[in-house]
Protein 1
Amino acid sequence: MKSILGIFRAACFSPGMVGRDEAILRTVAEHLDGTLYTVSLVHEEDFTHTTPMPDIVLHMARSPRVLDMLCEWQKAGCRIINTVEGVRNTQRASLASLCTAQHIPAPQTWIVPTASPRPDKITFPCWVKRADTCAQEPNDVCYIADAQEYISCLSRFSARGIRTAVVMEHLEGTCFKFYTVRGTDFFHCMPAEELGYDKFSKTRPVQGAHRTELDKERIGHTLKAQFSNLDLQLDVYGGDVIIAPDGKARLIDLNDWPSFSPCREDAARAIAQLVTKG
């Protein structure tokens, strides 16, 4: 039997989502354990240099420490899902550059130093996000209406030691979430307002009335064609897009190994299929 190690995401990278993030990895393990594989699970915080290298790693890790160790395992021939390069590609500054290079539809984006705000270079309203990692607290992603708010936001980032920010133009439209597993037929999408929770609040009210005029089936086909096979060295991922009034979809966020909460069982089967296909 081949050995599989599953690594849970550290709590600091999973605000308000620890249980949901753990659930998808546990469900995948249930599909694989005792078939052709033996599966063990460890928390990212407990992963060390003494952890034995398995044949396959399924991980949600994001800390530089763990990613560096997994990179060494990759070089030694361990199969890592998602690859370390893929996880690093989802960091906001890297993703912005890749969207431009690969012509992935996205909002206009600026990568700026927080210590020297230049509001004259920015279009308002916009969103300001820390560039180095995912949001770990609500103030890591801020809606900005004008230059004064922009300067204040970047000053707060700088005071916290966040040296670089990603500034993204605000897009009018409807937010959709999608989830996919490359190499399989699995793809799921839905309006974000139907999710019913976010990482900083277990429940949230629906913002505005449901937009019944949207053709969800058509949008699903569009999103699958555009985003289910991105060349970012990721196999298990999800994202957020804004559907403009003209129907154009633009990527505003990408998540390596999301929780798949609305479609956990189907996603777990697809991830297990990805593993067994080799």
Protein 2
Amino acid sequence: MSEATTWQSVNSRYQLEALLHTLGASALPIALTTIPLWVDEPEVAWLSWYALAVGLGVVALVVGFIPRRVRALGYALRTDDLVFRRGVIFQRQVAVPYGRLQLVDVTRGPLSRILGLSELRLVTAAAATGVSIPGLPLAVAEQLRDQLISVAETRRAGL
């Protein structure tokens, strides 16, 4: 019935990548909350401290949650499919049957290349089952891509 699932984690360096992405994305909104501080109106200036505090609080919560979110990422190779899981509060597991794979892609952005990481993207005909596994070392992603392509070739379903 149910086979034992051996979960593989993403590389721990992905925490640094997620942290840098989060800080980069939050820099502009945090900078915008300081605009009222530039005004010499005392009635306006004290309110802007609240906006800045709320913005920094939200960023601190998101940054503090990154290690747990990265630990929740995982994938497992089973007999007939690859299962990917993610999420802490809203958890999601997606099973991608090998025979339904249409494209297996390894992508690397500039930050990922610096950290030696990559992202493996699996595409099927159904848009809802597209899976991206971030934070894989390049060698692991390429080996997994080649393995998935060879297994998918032998299990083409209805093609």
